[in-house]
Amino acid sequence: MRRAPEEKQRDPERTKARILQAALEEFAAKGFAGARVGEIAARAGVNKQLISYYFGGKEGLYQALNARWHVEESTFADPASELAELVAGYVRANSSRRDYGRLMLWQGLTDDGPPDPAFVADVRRDLEHLRRRQQDGEFPADLDPGAVLVALFSMAAAGITFPQLIRAVWDDDPASPEFAERYAREIRKLVGHLRTVPAP
Q1: CB within 8 Å of 180: residues ≥ 6 apart
Q2: In Å, what is the CA distance from 141 to each residue of 94, 144, 149?
Q3: Contact 76, 179 (CB under 8 A)
Q4: Is the C-alpha dihedral spanning 8, 14, 20, 25 positive or negative?
């Protein structure tokens, strides 16, 4: 494979990481439709042809960011932990990785096409895990696991979706680690109260 001209002077992995970070910031600020490859290249300090060389363009960048999120998710979302702790982990992650949350918000606000099959598969897996948790008594049997999943997802993202509400309720910066820890603690308690059998 022939090397791109700029690659000779750069560490390819570091360059790719810089491009991905620039893409994350651009997508978070403007959404997929509004983001421009030229702007991403300028943020990353590279020629935009290098983006095509590494990622095949804007769609490839977006997919690479989704893959990177899954890798990061595995560092804080332990499926073996109790549901209350799992949701608290997502609260903290949404606070420290706000650009990923904004990316998802843009997708929800602007995308009226069919859902991404990989995203649907992930959600269906999460739903199956929730059903098993329900059978184990982590939340009441009369609750629809789908509704529980949507509610938990929404609660975990509240610091991104409703920053004005956070400021009004607590006079707190929703991007601060202090808010994330306070809110994660309260969400952990709230979800823990759903448990119908004592924790082992």
Answers
A1: 91, 92, 94, 95, 96, 159
A2: 29, 8, 14
A3: no
A4: negative
d(CA 142, CA 45): 54
The set of long-range contacts for 30-37, using a CB threshold of 8 Å and a minimum separation of 24, is 30/106, 31/106, 31/107, 31/109, 31/110, 32/58, 32/62, 32/106, 32/107, 32/110, 32/111, 33/110, 37/61
Cα(169)–Cα(117) distance, integer angstroms: 37
Whole-angstrom distance, CA of residue 122 vs CA of residue 172: 33
- CA pair distance 82, 194, nearest whole angstrom: 12
Model confidence pLDDT, tens digit, residues 152-186: 999 999 999 999 999 999 999 999 999 999 999 99
State how far the alpha carbon of 29 is from the alpha carbons of 76, 83, 94, 105, in Å: 25, 31, 16, 11
| pLDDT tens profile 93-117 | 999 999 998 988 888 888 755 667 8
**CA-to-CA separations, 77 to 5, 81, 91, 95, in angstroms, rounded:** 40, 8, 11, 14
Backbone angles phi, psi at 44, to 5 degrees: -85, -15
The residue among 176, 154, 172 whose CA lies nearest residue 164 is: 172
d(CA 40, CA 37): 5
- The pTM assigned to this predicted structure is 0.84
- Pair of tokens at residue 158: 């509240």
